[in-house]
């Protein structure tokens, strides 16, 4: 049974007043980190084609929410953007024509400080030394875009502190196509809604790659490539982290469950030292679909021994593909009373290899494992039945 003892040790790094300045990274040593992002974790395979993709809302996140919600400059700490529904689509988003192209760190942060609905910030190829943040918001009709290529590299300079890209109490952003590396945490969304994180290369980070917390709702994390997490602490090296541990609610959410609900995680390729996707207690109503997980770098240590740990409620986990694991493919747990239930697993393809666990370990009650999940190298579930 997994006991969650992970603790967000750098709670306020970059959380207060960071939107006013760019923190320039030191370049001591002059060494270049190994760039393994962009490689296919499972060569020759892709995400299982999910059912019911449809066209939906082309922008994905925030579909169906009222136009203009969260269109201000974002509130202070403890004032998240308005709650948004689960994105109805995960169709890829194309970047519009740039309204401005930036070429350096100071210029980038200046544009993030003054970003307005409809802005399209293009990152020219190059190294952007620093860690970046904004508390501005777009609207549903006019989101704010930050677009680049894998050669547009946000380099935080140190894997022991800070967030590579931080949105706080913001709404309706589109982060597309660039690289984030060498920060403690790659991309952090705090109190952020209606936002799409797409096609990023996030690698060589101290802890987790992409984290949605503090009532972040209705966001889409899609088609990203995540590798080399947990370089500072493998135990905290999740690929995508939804919500926060109940141990941290006192610091983050005034003691309330972190209802970072209705978030979509789709089409990502993840190699991580902790779970590829960690679904925390207090979150609900999300969807994981069409992701590819490679657990060959899992740290194990009695904690990180599966690709997905579902401790939230009411998630649909479907059409994912995984290989290499320490113990199980997927797990559920009741980490906090009343949580870890109502989750549905269907059409996942699970290769346990030489692991000693099962495809889907049910450590909590009230979850559904469909018989169309496929597993090789072991049993489908520890409960011995599917539906």
UniProtKB/TrEMBL annotation:
Region (Disordered), start-end ranges: 28-70
Record's keyword terms, sorted: Signal
Residue ranges of the TM segments: none
Amino acid composition bias (Low complexity), ranges on this chain: 43-52
Coiled coil: none
Signal sequence coordinates: 1-25
SMART domains: PbH1
Name of the protein this chain belongs to: Uncharacterized protein
